[in-house]
Write a structure and sequence with these properties.
Structural class of chain B: mainly beta
Number of strands of chain B: 11
Structural class of chain A: mainly beta
Number of helices of chain A: 0
Helix content of chain B: under 10%
Helix content of chain A: under 10%
Number of helices of chain B: 0
Shape of chain B: globular
Number of strands of chain A: 12
Mean pLDDT of chain A: 91
Low-confidence stretches of chain B: none
Largest sheet of chain B: 7 strands, mixed
Oligomer: heterodimer
Strand content of chain B: over 45%
Low-confidence stretches of chain A: none
């Protein structure tokens, strides 16, 4: 069965410092992995996705994530946080043979201090 | 086509009443998914359609819940005899194919009082 564990429920960084949001997954087959962001009272927006191509995936707004099969991890990083990055972030796994349904992690709330 | 539309945005209903939500996916997307998100949690899968066929239903989808996608375009999610525990954000997403990419709607927030 698929599952996702986001290792931090809340991360706080200062503006201009690096961001690291950690995610571990469990999957029986080759998974597709995603990061979504949800700003308050807004819909879910796709940041980036991994679908068995390059293991280092670049997304929007300067975010990137690295797929590490040996560690079953898919951590999200950004070199320099911006105030507008404050939001809830979800790590998501999907398997093609499961109809493509998405399994979400519990979410990590990112706070950015001025 | 500007994306996935959900209607209404907010719904307040009394316990025991029936409610129906609508989702209009991106027109060329043949897959449509429903999720439920409660406060402080990630979205949970409810059900999905490929064209008009409902291919999977989660155990979360009790007998009081029913979803349809009659012509393979828009979908409706009905909750009968609502309970306070049904209060949540109901999200709809569509995609061209499994794992291809999903577009989410803004959701319908249901409050059962």
């Amino acid at each position: 069965a698929q599952s996702v564990t986001q290792l931090d429920s809340h991360v706080s960084v200062s503006e201009g410092t690096p961001v690291l949001l950690r995610c571990n997954y469990s999957s029986s087959y080759s998974p597709s992995l995603f990061w979504y962001v949800q700003h308050p009272n807004k819909g879910l927006q796709l940041l980036l996705k991994y679908t068995s191509a390059a293991t280092l995936v670049k997304g929007i707004n300067g975010f990137e994530a690295e797929f590490k099969k040996s560690e079953t991890s898919f951590h999200l990083t950004k070199p320099s946080a911006h105030m507008s990055d404050a939001a809830e972030y979800f790590c998501v796994v999907s398997e093609y043979n499961q109809g493509g349904k998405l399994i979400f992690g519990q979410g990590t709330e990112l706070s950015v201090k001025p | 086509d500007t994306g996935v539309s959900q209607d209404p945005r907010h719904k307040i209903t009394k316990r025991g009443q029936n409610v129906t939500f609508r989702c209009d996916p991106i027109s060329e997307h043949n897959r449509l998914y429903w999720y439920r998100q409660t406060l402080g949690q990630g979205p949970e899968f409810l059900t999905y359609f490929q064209n008009e066929a409902q291919l999977e239903k989660s155990r979360l989808l009790s007998d009081r819940f029913s979803a349809e996608r009659p012509k393979g375009s828009f979908s409706t999610l009905e909750i009968q005899r609502t309970e306070q525990g049904d209060s949540a954000m109901y999200l709809c997403a569509s995609s061209q194919a499994a794992n291809y990419g999903y577009t989410f709607g803004s959701g319908t927030r249901l409050t059962v009082v």
